[in-house]
Amino acid sequence: MKILIVEDDADTRALIKMLVLKRSHDVLDFEDAESAWETFQKDHFDIAIIDWVLPQMTGLELTRKIRSLAETGENADIPTYIIVATAKDSHDDLSAALDSGADDYITKPFNSKILNVRLAVAEKQIIHAIRQNKAEEQLRLSAIVFNLSDEGIMITDQDNNIILVNEAFTKITQYDAKESMGKNPRFLQSNLQDRAFFKKMWHTIHDQDFWQGEIWNRRKEGEVYSEWLTIRVQRNEKGEITNYVGVFSDKSQGIRAKQELLYAQNHDRLTRLPNRFQFVETVRYAISVSKKTKKEIAVFFIDINRFKLINETFGQGMGDYFLQMVASRLKKVVASEENLARVGGDEFTLLLEDIQNLQDVTQIAQKIINDFQTPFMIQNSEIMVTVCIGIAMYPNDGNDALVLLRNADSAVYKAKEIGINNYQFYTPEINARAFEQLTLEIQLRKSIKENQLLIYYQPQWEIGSKKMLGMEALLRWKHPELGMVSPAKFIPLAEENGLIIPMSEWIIESVIRQILEWKSQGYLEYRVAINTSARQFHESDIIGFLEKMLAQYAIDSSSLELELTERVTMREGSQSIDKLVKIREMGIHLSLDDFGTGYSSLSYLQKFPIDLLKIDQSFIKNLNIRMEDAAIVKTIIAMGKSLRMKTIAEGVETEEQRKFLHENGCDYGQGFLISPALPASEIVSFFEKTEK
Q: What are the structural domains of the chain?
């Protein structure tokens, strides 16, 4: 169709033009009526959208001229459909627009959806379609109905009996065409609006041939809903009413959409439990009630132990499924699901209200712990997990929801320190420890920038001859005020906050530089093993980084060895194997650290391009005391030989341990028996002593 737009406001004109073009029509637009009129006299336009207020000539004057020409010209049988756009909304003004010859009008400011409806109605020229013979009329009206499928449409005859409805009508009202045909639309009424309302509505329809407003109707299944209804009267040449056309939208859909959005904002997508934001609001309300009732409330912070291991072993999909099972299990102990929330990866919170005594709290905490004694089933495997619970009480532990939540979180750390499957109440000492942890993180970030990190090297040697094989690079932190900070304190912290990735890359580059420096001093080139974190292996481009380092420093790749734990390699299965193969193809050696403490599958282990199995020092410590540990060590050594892998024992401190390992075929050792970890400056003298 050819469409004429006359609008002096550039932004409004652009909006209308965009919608017209979107409907695949030809369009010509003008900012003044005079230019539009000159063009219209030379050409025919199917639809004209005209602003009321225009320079030189008003929109109503232009409408009258177009209507006069259209009715007498060669295209009189297909008259131009005129829509007047106006900011005026009084009955007199709107009547004046229709009296000028306009077929429809739209009030400003308008949204694109309403304009779309107006364009759709105009496209099919309802007046022209109804004047055709019965068969053609049905065909044209059907096309209109389906083109307006976003809005409900019903067309009635002169007696207001329904003759046609569209799919959107059925979707909104739940009545199909057969159930609706021949009925008066009043069968949809909800009876929430009185007779006076409808009397006034019909008076307006017959007086102005138009009505628009909100109607409350009832769906077939009984639900009452709100709709925004527009009714237009269609007349024949004699001015007699031939049809009523009703176009309506379901306002309740918008309400439902808002409700769904609000629900999504306040709930966890995975478990459908309230999220942290909603839980805080729930606690705030509980505090306001508690101030009146004078009863205590308790906030639980529940941490699921070993979730990270489950995620790494079975994959994220199974990890998500596990969290859903956890949520289901926790729901059984709460009176209201709104008092339970998921606030983090494996972290849940619980609110208890109207507490009579402390026993109410401890019983719930113990019930949660007991419930988690039952294993979870994942891929036909029984998985045991444990929980640690921190508890903060109102009003003793805080008068604000966020303070209570933070203090309950702090109490979890105390529970973890004591052990698995226990609960602990908040104390100020715990809060001080949490603050210390935050301070440590700030200092750790600062340490990287200020070069406070050091690398120590612990020698590795042949178990029989004690001849030096290489060494393991171990990270140390020398704080200017705190002194040497234990790796057990800062490594887990770096893993948690992501600092481990830049730290690991710094270690690799520093080790490579050190190897080249030792080589330039004439010392033999020993292999150096570097621990590789799970986050570095899975979340960074470790392949690209290693390739960059080898190219930049032109070092012999066989001088490097990467140590990975079983948990790192087991995660993501075949993807991990592909990465390991690429690293091994570079010439870099690979070792499996802490072997025997994880959950390695032998079928996967056979596929790993591993050179070395490291026997965890926990088995070596009591080697000569506990028969079980001795049996495990023998098994690991035998497994290594069957897989054509070398074995190295960590934590070798006594000659008795060394002899046992040598007699049972272990290849290498590492531990205080030969040397502790030494700074780079002292390792040189160790070289000299070893090479003599």
A: 1-123 (3.40.50.2300), 133-264 (3.30.450.20), 267-426 (3.30.70.270), 448-691 (3.20.20.450)
